[in-house]
Structure formats: structure tokens, C-alpha cells
Design a protein that fits this description.
Blueprint: H1 2-24, H2 31-38, H3 42-48, H4 52-73, H5 80-96, H6 104-110, H7 112-139, H8 147-171, H9 180-190, H10 199-215
Helix pairs in contact: 1-2, 1-4, 2-3, 4-5, 4-7, 5-9, 6-7, 7-8, 8-9, 9-10
Keywords: DNA-binding
Protein name: TetR family transcriptional regulator
Organism: Bergeriella denitrificans
């Protein structure tokens, strides 16, 4: 029974922290805020987590597992519209953990463990899967790019995606992210594909990507 209680409290702390970090901003939430919101003592929280950064590391692991699950399970796109939907799925996962992307570099600078988790996740796991996406589009004759271009494009697409929420909120002078940022991010990330599209796909791409953004306004 004690073990079950421990697991439940541990999970409740992580779940509550995610909600508070997303809604109020990670910098505005302390471990005392989290404990008070849960109705537990700070000592109870510290029994499970020594500090806030340990909670953030667990949330990053949860996010990385969710994104990798999506990238492994989602069917690779076979059309322009599929590509938009595929990228929307990536942004949907990121939106669930959006506090991680509102000030990425500050979080990474604070924790060597988080930095290691992040770098391994990006270099060893995400980038190769994005190359698979580009190989698919290249093989179908939707884009045309050589191996070097596809490797560079995969890194650039991930770089824009990872920093998009931070950039968009600062550009608009907002302290809190709104969900329309997600749609603008889809547009901006996929805009990197446009120079590589074969001419017969460009009109369709422009029409559909603009329609997605217009629908969110």
C-alpha cells in the first residue's frame, strides 16, 4: 500500500507541475507552489524530488517519449496535405509540454543532466527520423534534394520547431503562449521545404498551408 501511495504522489507531482508550468510559466512556480496546489507539505514533495529541476527532467523525459512514440507510429506523409498534418502532430505533442520551449536555453543552462538528455534526444533520435521524412518526400518526387541538403534541412527544421514558441511569443510581446502559435509554427517549419518542392507542388503547398493558418485566425 505504501508503495502505491508513493507512486501516486510522485505522478501527481509531475502532472500538477506540468499544468502549473504551462499555465503560469516555469519561472513563476516554485516547489512550494506545487506542494500547496496539491495540498501536501513541502517535505512530502522533497521526499520525491530534491528540487524543481528534477521535476523538469522527468517532464522532459515524458515529452521525449511522447514525441518519439508519435514519430515512430505516424505514417510518413505521401502528399503535401499529409506533410502538413504530420507536422501538426509534432506541434501538438510540443504544445502539451510548451513550458519546455518558452525559454529553452535558460532551462538547459541550469541543468547538466537536462542538457545531456536534450542533446542525446535531438542528435541521436529526432534528427534521423526527420531525415526519414525527407527521404520519403524525396522518393515520392514531391521534393528534390541531395543527401547533404536533406541532412541540413532536417537540422534546420528541428531548430525552427524547437525555438518557435519562444520566438513567436517574444515577437508578439506575449508572456503567455496562445494556441494559434502552434499553427504559425507549422507554417514556418514547413516553409523550409518550399525551395525543394517540385514546381507542380508549389501552388498546392501555398494554398493549403495558407488555408491552415487562416483557419486559426
Amino acid at each position: 500500500m505504501a508503495q502505491t501511495s508513493k507512486i501516486n504522489t510522485y505522478t501527481r507531482i509531475i502532472n500538477t507541475s506540468l499544468v502549473l508550468f504551462n499555465e503560469e510559466g516555469e519561472r513563476n512556480i516554485s516547489t512550494n507552489h506545487i506542494a500547496a496546489h496539491l495540498g501536501i507539505s513541502p517535505g512530502n514533495l522533497y521526499y520525491h524530488f530534491r528540487n524543481k529541476d528534477e521535476i523538469i527532467i522527468q517532464l522532459f523525459k515524458r515529452y521525449s517519449e511522447a514525441l518519439l512514440h508519435y514519430l515512430h507510429e505516424a505514417v510518413l506523409p505521401s502528399s503535401v496535405e499529409d506533410s502538413i498534418n504530420y507536422m501538426a502532430g509534432i506541434y501538438d505533442v510540443m504544445w502539451e509540454y510548451r513550458f519546455l520551449f518558452s525559454d529553452v536555453n535558460t532551462l538547459l543552462a541550469r541543468s547538466a543532466e537536462l542538457l545531456g538528455e536534450h542533446n542525446n534526444f535531438t542528435q541521436a533520435k529526432v534528427s534521423p527520423l526527420l531525415v526519414n521524412l525527407l527521404n520519403q518526400l524525396n522518393g515520392l518526387g514531391i521534393i528534390r534534394a541531395d543527401r547533404i541538403a536533406m541532412n541540413d534541412l532536417a537540422v534546420n527544421m528541428w531548430m525552427v520547431t524547437k525555438y518557435w514558441f519562444d520566438f513567436d511569443s517574444s515577437l508578439r510581446g506575449r508572456t503567455k503562449l496562445t494556441e494559434d502559435s502552434k499553427v504559425r509554427g507549422i507554417h514556418r517549419t514547413l516553409s523550409l521545404l518550399r525551395p525543394y518542392l517540385l514546381p507542380e507542388y508549389k501552388e498546392e503547398f501555398d494554398r493549403k498551408i495558407n488555408a491552415v493558418e487562416a483557419a486559426a485566425k
